[in-house]
Amino acid sequence: MAGPYEELNRIFGPRNVRNDAKILEACSKDESFSPPLKPHYVVKAQNAAQIQELVQWANRTLTPLVPVSSGPPHFRGDTVPGAPGAIIVDLSEMNKIVHVDRRNRMVLIEPGVTYAQLQPELAKHGLRVSSPLAPRANKSVIGALLEREPITVPRLQWSMLDPLRCTEVIWGDGQRMTTGEAAGTDALETEWARHRAQVIPMGPGQTNFYKFTSAAQGSMGIVTWASVKCEVLPQVHKLFFVPAPELADLLDLTYSILRIRFGDELLIMNNWNLAMLLGKTSGSISALAENLPRWILMVGIAGRDRLPTERVAYQQKDISALAQKHGLQLLPEVPGAGAKEALKAILNPGDEPYWKLAFKGGCQELFFLNTLDKSPEFVAATNTVAAGCGYPGREIGVYVQPVQQGASCHIEFNAPFIPANPIEAEQVKQFYVRGSEEMLKRGAYYSRPYGIWSQMAFNRDAQTTIVLRKIKGIFDPNNILNPGKLCFY
To answer: 403-421 burial string, b = 16+ CB within 10 Å, else e?
Structure first.
């Protein structure tokens, strides 16, 4: 009987099976405080057939699989093996942009397609896809969508999974399935020839199967392609700033803009987060943070095919009037930041190093969902926790992003630190642990429960845990997909 190495070589070919010590060491950890654990192999998948064969073999041998589609750095522990003997399934070479449908504003892509690859290609067709804030150049589009990374345009987000639509999934039991209106249809090429697009994500039947892979950290199935809704590329696109001394001063205006569905990009950052986003070096970030206003609401206004200039002009006028009504100003620039550079930083994949690492080389994220009106309370609590840990709270970056048309809000704290400094690293680790517990007490909803958040979330909800484990038993009965994550052990 052939051993694991021989079987993996047979499925993927020798070039695509790696077990060098350097590669395994790199895959054993990430930027988070997750316990390191080396995988046994890293395989590079080229197509869905290989993945399906691998999953079927893993079921026979009870071998854990960890699917990874984005390149490093990783921040949340979801790509670190949670069980010994794991195989990292690298999907980065499945990077075809399979089909662009300008008429229906849809694109169908493989999991290795990144934002840096997709946006320029869509621009040739006059399209773009709504993206998270300044994604990494090697960030998988499908990976970001499945993990519900918040996009910066809340008015276009009708559900937490927008703009994700149909998918092809290989479940943990080895079965392949297409979801949404793509299910049970003819070959994709035949559907495209009939001018049909994979637009409707619900189904097949009365079950939204694609939701089972959402925020699952690869523990339910491996998505091999997905259709994504696009937007028309703006002909005129401007960004404006609304500065304020306190976060609470910006909330009523933000709610007003959300209510009338004006603008595109709509987000709030404090001076340190915006400085990290715009600065290139540690010194320039510190200087910029001192110069920027304490809190800044950023509003992007886009004019597309029809009367683009007029559209931007009337929205700018009306939003400016709303700002004045709330005692604020809509400005084209603030001390230390201009509109063009800020808009470019928000929309486009950033340069190396990743912007969250530019200040000190390390960064610990703490994020969750709540409502916009509660965000000042969480900011105050975070500063108190940081002080108790001896960490300088003034350096914590804050990012407040309304999602799903403002129905809820992504609240994120970024704590930079020097990884080689054990004292500072321990301060940030304590801040992360204590802060996570304090935020939970105050109503934080960890909808993407990475690391220690999984125990916090699932220990408080026994019924949901029971249901999720039943679903896991259906789609991945042998628990081979990323075991040790969520409530699956």
So the answer is: bbbbbbbbbbbbbbbeeee
Q: Do both 298 and 390 map to the same domain? A: yes
Q: Is 70 exceeded by the pLDDT of residue 95? A: yes
Q: Do residues 281 and 413 share a domain? A: yes
pLDDT-derived band at 1 (thresholds 50, 70, 90) equals low
Q: Which of 460, 448, 475, 471 is nearest to 215 (CA)?
A: 448
Average pLDDT of the chain is 95
353 and 307 belong to one structural domain: yes
- Which residue's structure tokens are 């304020």? 244
How many structural domains does the chain have? 3
| pLDDT above 80 for 184 | no
Q: Report the alpha-carbon distance of residue 83 to residue 28 in Å, rounded.
A: 11
Among the listed ranges 43-47, 237-241, 346-350, which one has the minimum average pLDDT value? 346-350
- Do 337 and 244 lie in one domain? The reply is yes
Round the CA-based radius of gyration of the chain to a whole number and report it: 23
- The C-alpha torsion from 305 through 307 and 308 to 309, rounded to 10°, is 160
Give the CATH number, domain containing residue 287: 3.40.462.10
Domain around 368: 237-441
- Partners of 398 in the β-ladder: 413
Evaluate whether 45 touches 96 at the Cβ level (below 8 Å). no
Give the domain-ending residue among 180, 207, 232.
Answer: 232
Quick one: which of 8, 3, 31 has its CA closest to 432? 31
| pLDDT in the model for residue 176 | 95
- How far apart (Å, rounded) are the C-alpha atoms in residues 25 and 288? 36
CA dist 93 and 476 (Å) reads 25
